[in-house]
Amino acid sequence: MSEPQTETVEVNGFPCRVWRKGSGPKLGFLAGLGGLPRWTPFLDRLAERRSVIVPSLPGYPGALGHSVLDNHLDWLLAVRQLLAAAGLDGTDLAGSSVGAAFAAEMAAIWPGSVRRLALIAPFGLFDEKDPPTDPWAQRNDAVAALMCADAANWDALKEPPPGTNSPDWAIEQTRASEAAARAFWPLGNTRLEKRLPFITAPTLLIWGDADQIMPQSYAARFASAMKTKPKLTVIPGAGHLAELDKPNEVAATIVEWMN
Amino acid sequence: MKLLWFHLMPYTELPDDFRDKHPSVWVDIHSSLFDPKRAHLMYNDFMDELEFAAECGFDGVCVNEHHSNGYGLMPSPNLIASALSRRTTDTAICVMGNSLALYNPPTRVAEEFAMIDCISGGRLIAGFPVGTPMDTCFAYGQNPSMLRERYYEAHDLVMRAWTERDTFAFNGRFNQQRYVNIWPRPIQDPHPPIWIPGGGSVETWQWCAAKDYVYSYLSYFGYKAGRATMDGFWKEMARLGKDRNPYRAGFLQFVGVAENRAEAMKLYAEAAEYFYGRCLHVSAKFAQPPGYISEATQRAGIESQVARAAGAAPPRYQDKFQMLGREMEDIVERGYVIIGSPDEVAEQLREVAVNLNVGHLMLLLQFGNMSKDLTRYNTQLFAERVLPQMKDLFSEWDDRWWPQPMPAAARASLSAFHPHATAAE
Fold this sequence. Notes:
The structure holds two protein chains of two kinds.
Chain A: E1 5-11, E2 14-21, E3 26-30, H1 41-49, E4 51-55, H2 72-85, E5 91-96, H3 98-109, E6 114-120, H4 140-147, H5 151-158, H6 168-184, E7 203-208, H7 218-225, E8 231-235, H8 242-245, H9 247-258
Helix pairs in contact in A: 1-9, 4-5
Chain B: E1 2-6, H1 18-21, H2 36-56, E2 60-63, H3 77-87, E3 92-95, H4 107-119, E4 124-127, H5 133-139, H6 147-163, E5 168-171, E6 176-180, E7 194-198, H7 202-211, E8 214-217, H8 222-239, E9 249-257, H9 261-279, H10 295-303, H11 305-309, H12 328-333, E10 337-340, H13 342-356, E11 360-364, H14 372-390, H15 419-424
Parallel strand pairs in B: 1-2, 1-11, 2-3, 3-4, 4-7, 7-8, 8-9, 9-10, 9-11
Antiparallel strand pairs in B: 5-6
Helix pairs in contact in B: 2-14, 3-4, 4-6, 7-8, 13-14
């Protein structure tokens, strides 16, 4: 697994990391809870078939600037600027978890900006009869098993690189969690259902069958709110961040959908 | 020095198996444990106790704000403070305090505090806590990433509401109000003294120094654990060129007085073990909403882990509820509760005040499920035999952070009507 190219773009005057790897038609990816403190096998699989572009959301690892985003409109405009600066305009777009909620917003509000869309267990809706798990009211030692079907996959993402002895790594992980909380506190409900009808891009929903955060029943809620009906693919043995548990299967599913 | 009598208003009938059967005393504590008819009696007992403390000669009575909390039955301390204003005469009314970011608009705090100041004749101390994660982020759903910014902005709005003479528009980042013009306005000029209850964050110390506010360290873990925090506070004051006026600081301490130490151990064990065993049974999952702790404080926390391991640094906020002594011997040994004869308690408290350099001691003389009789005994014994041994401390310093009420002769007399007395005549 080789490293991607790294560049920095500015959003609201703050640096945001953009990774690029591979060749072929562009495919953007917005990470879910926890962000991407390191390059992952899932991104490598995508890069084997497409030119994958991975911008970091404000406050996510490699990026700053969540602290000036005070409301949902601020966030949506920041994500739009970030994607445009990364060269993702009119291209395919995938996202996971909270990143998937933003990807759906982009496709709804700027329909021309997204060609085809893939959403892995997206946030954005809340049904009190079937609530998602609260990802922020958790003991530290419970988080890994909530994020991934195999807790070791989350631990591998979050483990400090060998030789790390400054507080920066730990602070960056907390900041990623804060950034997601800033945008989605307290319920994960951004009233996305009001905008879902405006999505015209063909949309694929992906759900891990072992998702401990976002119940799979939310796929039907997305489908009922969307005019362009999405396709659902369930990934066996995958948790909320399905791309960490099953990188090959999730990447293959996305690439096939985009093609 | 000043001695204040603080009530948390704990629900006193949590079951014996509370720790085993229930995940948390805070946020999601089950409603089946709350009996409103029992709470009727508790509230009235608690208010009697506060009034009794005022009669006994404590300098102030303190109340505070908690939400969804089995050890703090005051979502609105202002309601209690209002009642106390009517039933006390010269005692300071210390509301410790209102979590500013929870009020929408925060102008409400300026109004209610002004009401209390007017009713009490200018006896209010206005406390402005950020609020705990459990109260603010979980029970009240505030965004942890914006809590502090909202708090600072709400503070600015309240201060302007109190001090500006003309109607003004407030054009804040989080609050916009076209016409700010509170009626009533506080008696104290330019405003009631402001005390900031805080944990151990450097930013809070710096802010208190910049604004000239009292910093109050409200820890449940006593003077031994509090020493490192207060040392840090005074070191920062020195660095900022501030004097060591002990009235810049407040500190909370549990106390149980009896004729001798053995009797005190016996009398207060049940209430102390109830408090540390049941009342502080807080689920760790509510301790650290992301963003609640600033990055600077996180960094300082990570860097002081070595010091903490050596016992020289205070516990991290998220560890606070996880490292408790819960047996009476341990509770006393760790200094959570100071017990003894009046002379022993006075000696220890003088040491605490001097070592921590704290001019405002807030005393919890009711804690846990302590009965009304024992609370009265503890309060009275303290007032008669401990308090007089403390009063001379720090007499060389001026307390610039104490209420400035109207002259007593100009204030309304206590209880204009005495319906019971009339009926008896």
